[in-house]
Amino acid sequence: MFDKPEYFFNRELSWLKFNIRVLQEANEKSNPLLERLRFIAITGSNLDEFFMIRVAGLKQRLEGGINKHDAAGLTVAEQLRKINESTRRLVQKQYRYLRNVLEEMEKQKIYFTSVAELPQQYREWTEHYYTTTIFPVVTPLAVDSSHPFPFLANRSLNLAVELKRGQSDPKIAVIQVPGVLPRIVKLPNQTERQTFVFLEDIIQTYCASLFRGYVIKSIVPFRITRNADLTIDEEDADDLLAEVEKSLRQRKRGDAVRLEIGKTAKKVLRRFIIDGVKIKEENVYDINGPIDTGCFMKFGESIGAVKLMYPSFVPAIPPGLVGKDDLLAAIQENDILLHHPYESFAPVIEFIRGAAVDPEVLAIKQTLYRVGGDSPIVQALAEAAENGKQVTVLVELKARFDEENNILWAKRLEEAGCHVIYGLVGLKTHAKIALVVRREHGVIKRYVHMGTGNYNEGTARQYTDIGLLTANDQIGADASAFFNVLSGYSDPPVWNKLGVAPIGLRQKFYELIKREMDFADAGKPARVIAKVNSLVDKELALKLYEASHHGVKIDLIVRGICTLRPGLPGVSDNITVRSIVGRFLEHSRIFYFANGGEEEIYLSSADWMTRNLNERVELLFPVEESEHKGRIKAILELFLQDTEKAYIMRSDANYYRADKRQKQINSQKKLLREAELSFQAGVSPIVDLKPAHRRG
């Protein structure tokens, strides 16, 4: 009944709409100026990953002769064509916003200029910088019959140089802009203003010294994006760690999927680059500005312009820990709910750190998906092993773009004496759970932390996530069984409290949605509120359509991709979809069910995507204490009332801003204010939270 292409929207085009929403924040005058610049950088970084993984995958399918229709009825070829059209519009808007922001920065006496426009004294300085710092690093690469077009690394910035000597035919060379040097160079000895030039501009201005005897006819910057999706043969791999390391080396040499080239490129150089890269014209993007806006990601911090950035703030201590000096005793008394970044991540670190030195702790078991660069949790796990405790850590080696970092940590943990599991064959372990086993009065007591986000104190300052610390015996038993399934040959048990993917979680969601249908049919309270990063799974969408048809009110808060269409007559009349894009990346996964008046709330590591339900190890866990349930429901209702940062989805899959005539509500700002009031009321901070934001 509901399985029709017109009832669905394409996944990739939905993602591009999300990136446009992120980009729109760069045009919001209410955002601090350098944060607007950061949003431009985020969209550039997001687009890189989109091409490296999603577009690359579609191209591989098409080249392999696979041109099937998706849920929205589009063939692979049609998807690529529409992606191309949408991306070009996005890039044009991106650079238009960039020019606007750079102009406004000049009013704050922050200037980006070309070397050619500098006064003589600074031209002399840039020449000296080139001679002493850049020249020893760069290497010109000739391209001719005896020098083939060089292999250029993924996302490296390069210069193509056209050379001439006398009456001979033109020569062409390539210079790779060194990634070991700062891309943005600040001019020295300025008091009332700050002036910056790009590294590639300095090289273009003075690189004649690399080609003595030749005249430079033209130069153009360009950048290649390559297929970076790992191909890992897990079934036949004797050593998964070695297989992932080998695939990481291959990632740098993937086929080109996008070429960005300076708009000023002359025909000769443009054709030379396209032929050398071996890419089709349809995959070439002419850039009117600095290639790779990701270089602006940390610009604000680098110049210390705090007045032009989000103000820093101090996260509150979670209410359940106020006035407590014994973390485990507090957890025994009541479950502890943690709402990051508004509340400190420090209790999570202390949970593991305290267990590492507690003589009564016998074992620690934990999953790690994305770990910070200098992780105190990893250090605590290593210390625990060195202290003689049984430490088991599942490190997911296949966490995309964090593989190298995770391999590093896994080896260090092994060296410290931890038992390290390198993920499961055919699955990614995306669940976030830590189990502490402690001996108390001659019996074993288990403490558990579960969350919607990673054990990464850095992203805990940038992403909104919710965690739960509990001493619930049934959850503790489930946690032990969960780790036994991961580390050994144990079949999954009948779970007391947890829902686990890939076995059972999909069915659990089906049952919860079906229950709401039954309540709606019986005239009892029936409602679903789901907050996820993405909604892509077709079968779940069909269940939601069916529930809407039965009269269940469904409010979806979907930050990114949403392939379901709300508001379709007779199909999704009772479904609303909104996306919140603001200072923090909305990352928590929350599920509310009215349940005929006996409300239930669940938190999860899983989004409503096929990969999360079928191809990953995920956890769903209940929030059972009434105080916590009330608090989470209030947070959900606040998101649904947001009029400043919410985008509401129409049935045509386009998004519009909430009615500005309504009372202005910014959900993130309100939650920040509540955290500040908690601090001002005398609650001592645990850790200072610096403003930051990451890719959408």
Fold blueprint:
Layout: H1 11-24, H2 33-63, H3 76-107, E1 110-112, H4 120-134, E2 140-143, E3 157-164, E4 171-176, E5 184-186, E6 194-198, H5 199-206, E7 215-226, H6 240-251, E8 256-262, H7 267-277, E9 284-287, H8 299-303, H9 327-333, E10 336-340, H10 346-357, E11 361-368, H11 376-386, E12 390-395, H12 403-416, E13 419-421, E14 428-429, E15 433-440, E16 443-451, E17 463-470, H13 473-487, E18 499-501, H14 505-521, E19 527-532, H15 538-549, E20 553-558, E21 575-580, E22 585-586, E23 589-593, E24 600-604, H16 610-614, E25 616-623, H17 626-641, E26 646-649, E27 655-657, H18 667-680
Parallel strand pairs: 1-6, 8-9, 11-12, 12-13, 14-25, 17-22, 19-20, 20-21
Antiparallel strand pairs: 2-4, 3-4, 3-7, 5-6, 7-8, 10-17, 11-15, 15-16, 16-17, 18-25, 19-23, 21-26, 23-24, 24-25, 26-27
Helix pairs in contact: 1-2, 1-3, 2-3, 10-11, 11-12, 14-15
Short characterization:
This protein is an alpha/beta fold. It is built from 18 helices and 27 strands. β26 (646-649) and β27 form a beta hairpin.
Unreliable runs, pLDDT <50, ≥5 residues? 682-696
Please, how many helices?
18
- In the CATH scheme, the class of the largest domain would be Alpha Beta
Structural class: alpha/beta
Tell me the CATH superfamily of the largest domain.
Endonuclease Chain A
Report the sheet-strand fraction: 15-25%
The CATH architecture of the largest domain would be 2-Layer Sandwich
Euclidean distance between termini CA atoms: 34 Å
- What is the third-level CATH name, the topology of the largest domain? Endonuclease, Chain A
Task: Tell me the radius of gyration.
Answer: 27 Å
What profile does the largest beta sheet have?
A: 10 strands, mixed
Mean pLDDT: 91
> In terms of quaternary structure, what is this?
single chain
- Shape estimate: globular
What's the β-strand tally?
27
